[in-house]
Every structure is written in structure tokens, then in C-alpha cells.
Amino acid sequence: MYDFKPGPEASPKERYDELCQAVEALTADEPDGVANMANTASLLWEFLPDLIWAGFYRVSSTKDGSGDELVLGPFVGRPACIRIPFGQGVCGSAAQQAKVHLVADVHAFPGHIACDAASRSELGVPVLRDEVVIAVIDLDSPTASRFDEADAKGIEALARILAERI
Length: 166
Ligand code: SME
Known about the structure:
Structural class: alpha+beta
Order of helices and strands: HHEEEHEEEH
Largest sheet: 6 strands, antiparallel
Shape: globular
Bound molecules: methionine sulfoxide
Number of strands: 6
Oligomer: single chain
Strand order of the largest sheet: 3-2-1-6-5-4
CATH class: Alpha Beta
Number of domains: 1
CATH superfamily: GAF domain
Strand content: 25-35%
Number of helices: 4
CATH topology: Beta-Lactamase
């Protein structure tokens, strides 16, 4: 049994330090990327308060094989959109621009893809391997302005750990 859980009094920095240590420990010896994404989604859910969705979109082939797009990966939360073209929504924009997207109000984000009507704010962080985007880590919250720079930095650190492990 794995028992990773932050104390209720943990500061945001402590929370992300502990989250990264837990992900590091659980993925270090495991070459299977799906297993590593699944455990990371679970840890995101365990460590971070006020989420309704936490998980991965992976860069993968379109159904007709004509190119690449984002395809749903392991997550915790309600069923979500399966395929997202580059440039569409928060995740597709984060993937296309290789840039963190911190969205305080998803209703104000042009082209936001509403997988869950309860989502109010969102953080999309690209995972880069050799400077190429291979996935996006996506967090959704029912609270507006839930995410800040500390969250962005914390998830970027997580993305660096996972770059060779998913
Ligand atoms: N809202 C996202 C789609 C993914 S779901 O939130 C899980 C977007 O605009 O990319």
C-alpha cells in the first residue's frame, strides 16, 4: 500500500515539494508510461485541494493518421473529451505554444472546451521531452482563480520529472 498524503497545514510550497517527491519515488523504477501517468493523476488528486479533474492529455496520432493531436490519458474526475486538436481550448493551446496556460476564468478563455460545466478555472502545463511537447498535464477547479504562479511552478517541476517517464 502506498500512503502519500500531505498534512492539512502544509504550505503550497511544501505541498508541491512532497508531491514531486512522491511522484519521483513512485515512477523512478517503472518504465511503463501509462502506469506512471495513472499514479501521478492519483497523487495530484490526493495532494491538491479544490479540483474536479486532474490528469493527462498525450500527443498521439489522429484517427486517420494524418497528423498528431491531444488524446485523453490517465486522469481522476468525470469522463472527458477524448481528442483535442492543437490550438483548441486550454490544453490544445498549451500544447501548440509549449507554454503554461493559467486560466482564472474558463468562461473568458476563447475556445475553452467545456468537458464539465462545473469547471471555473484551469491550469494546463506542457510536458516537454527534448524540447518537444509530448503531453499536457491538466487541472480543473470548480473555483474561479483557483491556480496561481506557485501552482504553475509546482506542476512544471512535476512535468520535468515525468519527461522521460511517460
Ligand atoms: N477544458 C479543457 C479540456 C479538457 S477538460 O477540462 C478535462 C480545454 O479547454 O482544453
